[in-house]
Specification:
By secondary structure, the chain is mainly alpha-helical. It has 14 helices and no strands. The two termini are 24 Å apart.
């Protein structure tokens, strides 16, 4: 858009759609590059964890064949694991029906203090197993379970870093697309990993710590004066969080587009929001609802396909599948969902950030007048995209 102009809500959506169409394949490729490493490590850790649990269940089953049934009944009788009505109950109705039926069966089997009885029985089995194997449950936890959880944690950290790098790349791509500036995708990739990722993380840390400090001071002073003040200040504190989120909504795109530091990006976003607060609130609510609807509709086919992968849960609950075999299928199900998530994420990853970018330039135009950019070639991505794309 050369030069820029003020946009109303419809214009923001139209311009966002144009940018999304322009950078769609670049974002899809970057999504894979930035998120796959963390997801692979997390899957490796989760797979090891499931394998360890299978080994433990198998060993305890050898000690007492009733162990798998006891474990299933224990979790079914857990009152904190209620099945609330939701879209998932509609999508996976057969699974929820099987859960409800199995829960009733378990409740009939243990009418009084069922969980306590099962827990005591499992403790007896564990003691019996320990006496035969010479290993306690803590030996197993720290030697196998904890190592798997550490791997999952490392993968989670890599995934968070990848998401921040991706956001930096999307902001860079969308701002260049808005301004009609050219860039090689390899350059954007390098800049996101070496610069934007760390700056965006630092910015969010500053934002969260500042907010927590203010809220902590308010709560602390309230406790000194009167504990009742905390109840009275709950609504104002909630309002403070919302106001801060709105005022600083454009902190990320400001940091990337104008090459600012973390604090400068926060100040820039706050300045752009002055005089536009309620407009930002209204447009953000509409955009959030639209993005949610698009993602829900777009993910519906994937969820319907995935629903077929949960028949094994029904078989397990109906005692047609052993616990060890169910855990083996769970492993493959997690992998399938990671693949589905990769497809879904690559499609919808840019929606909100591109809208934020377009809105940011609209606010700049309203504050500073028309923004003129020299015309350049469109984004060059031929070095990373396959031929014919």
């Amino acid at each position: 858009m050369i030069p820029s102009r003020e946009l109303e809500l419809g214009g923001l959506f139209t311009e966002s759609a144009r940018i999304i169409k322009k950078i769609f394949w670049q974002v899809a490729l970057l999504y894979a590059i930035f998120t796959i490493p963390g997801e692979v490590v997390m899957y490796f850790g989760a797979s090891n964890l499931i394998s360890d649990v299978r080994d433990r269940v198998h060993e305890m089953t050898v000690t007492d064949p009733t162990t798998p049934t006891l474990i299933k009944d224990y979790f079914l009788l857990d009152s904190t694991r209620g099945s609330s009505l939701s879209i998932y109950r509609l999508l996976y109705s057969e699974v929820f029906t099987a859960i409800d039926s199995a829960r009733k069966t378990a409740a009939n089997r243990y009418p009084d203090s069922g969980q306590l009885l099962i827990k005591n029985r499992l403790e007896q089995i564990n003691q019996k197993f320990t006496s035969h194997s010479g290993k306690t449950i803590w030996d197993w936890l720290f030697s196998k379970l904890m190592s798997s959880l550490i791997i999952v944690g490392i993968g989670f950290v890599l995934l968070i870093l990848g998401i921040y790098a991706l956001r930096g790349a999307i902001f860079d791509l969308s701002s260049r697309a808005y301004e009609e500036r050219s860039a090689k995708l390899s350059e954007i990739l390098k800049k996101s990993l070496s610069k934007y990722m760390w700056l965006l993380i630092t910015q969010d840390i500053i934002f969260v710590l500042s907010l927590c400090t203010v809220l902590g001071l308010v709560v602390g002073l309230s406790l000194l004066i009167s504990p009742l003040l905390i109840v009275l200040l709950l609504l104002p504190c909630f309002g403070l969080v919302l106001i801060s989120a709105v005022r600083l909504l454009f902190r990320g795109i400001a940091l990337v587009s104008e090459e600012l530091g973390p604090l400068e990006g926060l100040n820039r976003s706050f300045g752009l929001s002055v005089g536009n607060f309620w407009r930002i609130v209204g447009y953000a609510i509409v955009a959030t609802l639209l993005v949610y609807i698009l993602e829900t509709i777009g993910q519906l086919p994937i969820n319907l396909i995935a629903a077929d992968n949960f028949n094994w849960i029904v078989d397990y609950l109906n005692d047609k599948l052993s616990l060890t075999n169910a855990l083996a299928i769970l492993d493959s199900t997690i992998l399938k969902y990671l693949i589905f998530g990769l497809i879904s994420g690559s499609i919808f990853a840019s929606l909100w950030d591109v809208f934020t970018t377009t809105f940011y330039y609209d606010l700049r135009t309203r504050k500073e007048g028309s923004l003129d950019y020299p015309p350049e070639e469109t984004i060059n991505t031929s070095s990373l995209l396959p031929e014919g794309q």
